[in-house]
Design a protein that fits this description.
heterotrimer, A alpha/beta, B alpha+beta, C alpha/beta, A: alpha/beta, 2 domains, seven-stranded mixed beta sheet, 7 helices, C: alpha/beta, Rossmann fold, six-stranded mixed beta sheet, about 20% strand, 4Fe-4S (chain A), Alpha-D-ribose 1-methylphosphonate 5-phosphate C-P lyase (chain A), EC 4.7.1.1 (chain A)
Chain lengths: ~350, ~400, ~190
């Protein structure tokens, strides 16, 4: 595929127009899932077709795009989607959260606090928070209409009865502005507090399920809970073994077959910036370089221009823009460390 | 020092190169041409066109070649291409009554106006591997290649085509029963259901000029109209629609279906050109149409009548067309005043939400993408739950 | 159709509509902020900003209602040529464009259905000018409070009380646009 064969940002203008209208209605009714005529995309359903369509409808040539999967810029699907937009839209890409104007994400919210002027686009597999309680769209639509969310509370309370606590650790349901119950996509519940009162626009795209929904900036988002069992954003009871961060979400990495393991930040950019700023953890690693990459000269579809592989990056590049939000733990509400 | 696994981009490039080599296979063996696939794997091409909703045998053949014969992957390639094409307009409804037939059978009548045309079917072949094909030899051609008229009966040399006329039905004879071709005919061949309809024996379909919804341009809305259901079924995965149809035969929403008529052939596609003020012929497509005649289970308001199911699919795809008409019929329970007995094939939302194999395969296969962030949160949760349970047990002891 | 109807569209639609959408997204997502829209030159009396919104958001699937002075031949032709949008009565409109007075009574416009609140009209209200002062706005998209020179209070407060139903508004003046979604609460300053 070369850029010249397709419209700017892949989608045709009429499709973008339709998606843009859906996004605006989503903004007007925060948390409500707007049906849209999702298109078949050149990547499979489940790989982020909803997010890709929303990003394509939002992108301008002036944007700087960041794509993460599991918090990391270098996971294969993140690399693949980033390359797709480099090729079809010719936009600049970055791994630095603070530099990006649009961030497409799967399963995480960046640790670095987002700012005005940024858009966070979530890839959503099942947009309907009530789906696992009621498989029928016709029924769940009625439940949203009538604000009949009792079933959800019953489910959460059954968890408490059985396990002593709410046994939902990701895709934890939230209520938006006191009205719609919303699925925040499969982010760990550690990330839920970042949904509320964000400075950025948050857009959610579910391609296969043909839904778009949105959170405007400074929208009040509450994780469902009970007075006697308040919501707790939990994480592993460790510091990052590379950068020493105590307040970031951690991946557990098995290092040998004898039970050895380590914990590292799931947000690779956050971790890199902390190390660049001199922080080190138990197994601390030295600093790596900036990840900002100029737009490729379209329509040449050459490989490797993304420079996503850190091993290939220029060690002499300018230091990364790691400033805002770092180490501030701006969203650090009620973080509970897991006792082992 | 620990270094996390990196190099997603290089891994992707390497995987693509490997895939390309695997797709080609042994270079000592001649590559398949797209034309060879189009001509010799025509039923695979038909399936890809039907489920990809794009009538283009060359592109479907290319997709099959590129997908290494994985038909769902080929359907996906076609869908992703089709969605980028501009829409110039809508064709007029095709008229299957004017179909140039290559096959036409009815299971409900021994013979009928227009005749039974067996056509190129596997139905009465013995499923014995033909080792002559493996030896790269060709069995002597027993049949004239399309598009010449279909011959009478399997295996025999073609007989001179007779042209039975509507008003002069072929008299029943041992030679023109089921399985014997009536010969191709350029004259319009009436639909079997029209005969029944004339006598009021079958439920009438209400014609409508309403523009049907377009599943590729509008999000699915439930409850769906019948045009939308038919559209979803004709695009739906053949295996899924087949299994649903089969389940109705086994009692999960039984509708007692007979194949009133199955016809395969080519029809003209016409488009109104506003600037010209009339319709022009823009091409010809092959389609398979199936109309089932189903038992009516009785109602308090209507005298007994047969009911109908309908299937229409691109290409020679009769398994799919028959399946579609059974599922269509099962989905019509409400309109026909029947009871919902909870059968999957009666359940519109279940059928429509799960028929698209590009959606299904995407969501199914996406679970192989990394999910370690969510898994980590589950790990922590289960450790915490276990720790608390153990603490409580120890406290109790 | 006059030859003028063919002029004044986007010269580079993919890029210009992308910029225009982002500005309108910012406007609706941050009620009370003023954004810039350029790139279209619609016939009078339509403002540049309203013209850009029409080119960016309307197509053959979105019925448009032109109110008052906006319901004139040159503008009808311009919208038809550039977007293909059918021109309809207020009740059937997905987009309605005109001066505030001409759009009255706004109770005519679609407010969505309880199960599909998105099926509501978007009003593009032409204003002589737009400033960040006037009635006090609070709600999603607004950090503490914002102010916008709305042409009225009662009608918007009534609309807001319908949430999650209601119409959504863009206000346009020259090249400026501001947004007012139904989720915004309105009080006198």
């Amino acid at each position: 595929m070369t850029a010249g064969d397709y419209n700017f940002a892949y989608l045709d203008e009429q499709t973008k127009c339709m998606i843009r209208r859906a996004i605006l209605k989503g903004i007007a009714v925060p948390g409500y899932q707007v049906p849209f005529a999702s298109r078949e995309m050149p990547m499979p359903y489940g790989w982020g077709t909803g997010g890709v369509q929303v990003t394509a409808a939002c992108l301008t040539p002036d944007d700087t795009l960041k794509v993460i999967d599991q918090g990391a810029d270098d996971t294969t699907n993140a690399v693949s989607i980033r390359k797709f937009f480099q090729r079809t839209a010719g936009v600049a890409v970055t791994e630095a959260t603070a530099e990006a104007t649009i961030i497409q994400t799967r399963h995480r919210i960046p640790e670095t606090a987002l700012t005005e002027g940024q858009i966070l686009v979530y890839q959503v597999p099942i947009p309907e928070p009530l789906r696992f309680l009621e498989p029928r769209e016709t029924e769940t639509r009625k439940m949203h209409e009538l604000e009949e969310y009792g079933l959800m509370h019953v489910k959460l309370y059954e968890d408490i009865a059985r396990h002593g606590q709410i046994a939902t650790s990701y895709a934890y349901p939230v209520k938006v502005e006191g009205r719609y119950v919303m699925d925040p996509s499969p982010i760990p519940k550690f990330d839920n507090p970042k949904l509320s009162d964000s400075s950025a626009i948050q857009l959610f795209g579910a391609g296969r399920e043909q839904r778009i929904y949105a959170l405007p900036p400074y929208t009040h988002v509450v994780s469902l809970d009970f007075d006697d069992h308040p919501f707790v954003a939990s994480k592993a009871a460790h510091d990052c073994d590379l950068c020493g961060a105590a307040d970031s979400y951690l991946d557990e990495v098995i290092t040998d077959d004898l039970g050895g393991r380590m914990f590292v930040c799931s947000d690779t950019d956050f971790c890199r910036c902390r190390r660049a700023a001199g922080h080190t953890g138990r197994l601390g690693a030295p600093v790596t370089a900036s990840r900002t990459v100029a737009p490729p000269p379209p329509p040449s579809p050459t490989r490797g221009e993304g420079g996503a592989d850190p091993d290939l990056s220029d060690p002499g590049a300018s230091p990364p823009p790691c400033g805002e939000g770092l180490g501030v733990g701006g969203h650090r509400h009620d973080i509970k460390e897991t006792a082992e | 020092m620990y270094v996390a696994v990196k190099g997603g981009e290089r891994a992707i490039d390497a995987a693509h190169a490997w895939l390309a080599a695997e797709r080609r296979g042994d270079t000592g063996i001649a590559a398949l041409s797209v034309a060879q696939i189009r001509e010799q794997l025509a039923l695979a091409v038909n399936r890809v066109m039907a489920e990809g909703s794009l009538y283009d045998p060359d592109l479907a053949a290319l997709a099959i070649k590129q997908a290494r014969g994985d038909l769902i992957e080929a359907v996906f390639l076609i869908c992703a291409y089709r969605t980028t094409l501009p829409r110039f307009g809508s064709s007029r409804p095709i008229n299957t009554g004017d179909m140039a037939l290559t096959r036409r059978i009815s299971a409900t009548f021994k013979d009928l106006p227009g005749g039974q045309i067996l056509g190129p079917t596997f139905d009465y072949t013995h499923r014995l591997l033909d080792f002559a094909l493996m030896a790269e030899g060709e069995a002597p051609l027993a049949a004239p290649p399309p598009p010449s008229p279909p011959h009478r009966g399997g295996g025999e040399a073609p007989l001179p085509a007779t042209l039975p006329h509507l008003d002069t039905p072929v008299p029943p004879s041992p030679l023109v029963g089921e399985g014997w071709g009536g010969g191709g005919t350029p004259a319009p061949v009436p639909h079997v259901t029209d005969f029944l309809n004339r006598d009021g024996l079958i439920q009438s379909e209400v014609p409508s000029d309403a523009t049907p919804p377009d599943l590729t341009r509008e999000p699915m809305e439930l409850p769906a109209s019948r045009p939308l259901r038919l559209q979803a079924l004709t695009r739906g995965d053949e295996g899924f629609v087949l299994s649903l149809a089969y389940s109705t035969q086994r009692g999960y929403g039984r509708t007692h279906a007979f194949v009133g008529e199955l016809r395969i052939g080519t029809v003209a596609v016409e488009m109104d050109i506003p600037e010209l003020g009339f319709a022009v012929d823009i091409g010809e497509i092959e389609v398979t149409e199936c109309e089932t005649v189903n038992q009516f289970t009785g109602s308090r308001t209507e005298p007994p009548q047969f009911t109908r199911g309908y299937g229409l699919v691109f290409g020679q795809t009769e398994r799919k067309a028959i399946s579609m008409s059974l599922v269509d019929r099962a989905l019509r329970w409400k309109e026909l005043g029947e009871d919902f007995i909870g059968a999957p094939a009666q359940d519109e939302e279940f059928v429509l939400m799960h028929a698209d194999n590009v959606q299904a395969t995407g969501f199914l296969e996406h679970i192989k993408l990394p999910h370690y962030v969510d898994f980590q949160s589950e790990l922590e949760l289960i450790r915490r739950l276990r720790a608390e349970a153990i603490t409580q047990r120890e406290a109790a002891e | 159709m006059t030859p003028e109807a063919l002029l004044g569209g986007f010269a580079d639609a993919p890029v210009q509509s992308a910029h225009a959408f982002r500005a309108s997204l910012e406007a609706l997502a941050r009620p009370g902020t003023l954004q810039h829209l350029t790139g279209a030159i619609p016939p009078a009396p339509m403002s540049v900003a309203a013209g850009v919104l029409v080119l960016t958001l309307c197509d053959g699937t979105t019925p448009v209602h032109l109110a008052g002075g906006h319901d004139c031949g040159p503008l009808r032709d311009w919208i038809t040529f550039h977007t293909g949008a059918p021109l309809v009565a207020a009740e059937a409109a997905v987009f309605a464009i005109g001066a505030w007075g001409a759009l009255q009574p706004v109770s005519r416009f679609a407010i969505g259905q309880p199960d599909y609140p998105d099926r509501s009209a978007t009003l593009i209200i032409e204003m002589p000018e737009l400033t960040a002062e006037g009635p006090r706005l609070t709600g999603p998209g607004i950090r503490r409070a914002a102010h916008l020179s709305l042409p009225a209070i009662t009608e918007f407060a009534v609309n807001s009380a319908l949430f999650p139903l209601g119409f959504d508004c863009f206000f346009t003046a020259g090249q400026q646009v501001a947004g007012l979604p139904r989720s915004t609460r309105i009080e006198a300053a």
